[in-house]
Write a structure and sequence with these properties.
By secondary structure, this protein is mainly α. Helices cover 48% and strands 11% of the residues. The protein is built from twelve helices and eleven strands. The strands form four sheets. Strands 1-3-2 form a three-stranded mixed β-sheet. Strands 4-6-5 form a three-stranded mixed β-sheet. Strands 9-11-10 form a three-stranded antiparallel β-sheet. The longest helix is centred in the first third of the chain and has 26 residues.
């Protein structure tokens, strides 16, 4: 028994170390300043500076590190005196026309040749300022989702600085709350005009207005359920994309049936009957057009949560199960 216990602990430690290495590989990003620090924006990995790149690459006799997993407006970016190269191959990642895709050819003596492209023909010649604007719009949508997902914690922080409850705090106080609660080191004072309204007389921040642009606010009335869904939005979006096998942006009844059957098979459980599947599809297809878009998909989880009184958001293993069977 003791040997079995030690073996279990040892394997758990090995698994943790392996997962930590995987997180570092997936989510670490280069930065311009020296040093190494946690990547709080991604929630995993680190930010590493040019001194770290020079030390590690020199130690292992590596000339250039080519990495990805970070969108760049031009499809690629060179940093750290040419030692670190980011290549991002998905054009139009945030929105149509938001960024170019690229790949790199490595020639003799490590000479790099970058090839840029855009999957959408009509977007190839968009000026840089237009592409940057589209990236900014998409990033702001994601940031607003994060803000709305943390509404309770933010409101508690704001309330401590607003003893009279008049909905006003100073710009510095608002910026400090956003940074401390969200753990995002962003230029909040610069961003405030895009995220929150200001009292024209006092110049103070009307902090409740930063929650007025959540995409699901008009559709979902239960605040706690809404925040739970926003926190798991990335997981749900991944599941949606897996079910959407033809990448059309919609889940068809056939795709949903195939996903449910695959999940039941993987879990060795009894699948839904044809009647139950038809009922599920009809419930999720809110506008009745025969397809399920992402907003309908999110709304369906809210409906299930309300009906059964518990979170109905799938966890990571279910996502992995679908991926393995795809």
């Amino acid at each position: 028994f003791i040997l079995s216990l030690y073996l279990s602990i040892y394997l758990s430690i090995c698994l943790y170390i392996s997962l930590h290495k995987m997180l570092d590989l997936l989510w670490s990003d280069p930065k311009t300043a020296n040093g190494c620090e946690p990547n709080l924006f991604r929630g995993g990995g680190t930010y590493f500076g040019p001194d770290i790149s020079k030390t590690i690459l020199g130690k292992h006799n590596i000339n250039i590190l080519i990495r990805s997993h970070e969108c760049k407006p031009d499809g690629f970016e060179t940093m750290h005196d040419g030692r670190v190269v980011t290549v991002f191959s998905a054009s139009n990642y945030y929105d149509e026309g938001s960024n170019l895709g690229a790949y790199v050819k490595v020639g003799k003596k490590n000479k790099l040749q970058f090839v840029q492209y855009n999957a959408t023909e009509k977007m190839k010649n968009l000026p840089l300022n237009t592409r940057v604007s589209r990236i900014e719009s998409s990033a702001l949508r994601d940031l607003r989702s994060t803000i709305f997902a943390n509404k309770v914690n933010l409101m508690n922080a704001f309330a401590k600085l607003d003893p009279h409850g008049d909905g006003h705090i100073t710009k510095a106080e608002w910026s400090s709350c956003m940074r401390e609660v969200l753990k995002l080191d962003l230029p909040w004072l610069t961003l405030r005009n895009k995220l929150v309204e200001t009292d024209t007389k006092t110049g103070h921040i009307l902090y409740e207005t930063c929650f007025e642009s959540g995409e699901l606010k008009a559709q979902i009335s239960n605040q706690q359920i809404t925040e739970d869904i926003y926190r798991q939005r990335n997981v749900l979006e991944t599941i949606f994309r897996i079910l959407d096998t033809d990448n059309s942006g919609f889940i068809t009844p056939e795709e949903l049936r195939a996903g449910c059957e695959l999940l039941a098979k993987h879990n060795n459980s009894v699948g839904l009957s044809e009647e139950e599947l038809d009922q599920l599809i009809a419930t999720m297809d809110i506008d009745g057009n025969g397809e399920i878009n992402f907003n309908e998909f999110l709304e369906s989880f809210r409906l299930v949560d309300t009906k059964f009184g518990s979170a109905a958001i799938p966890s990571g293993p279910s996502t992995a199960s679908l991926k393995e069977g795809q």
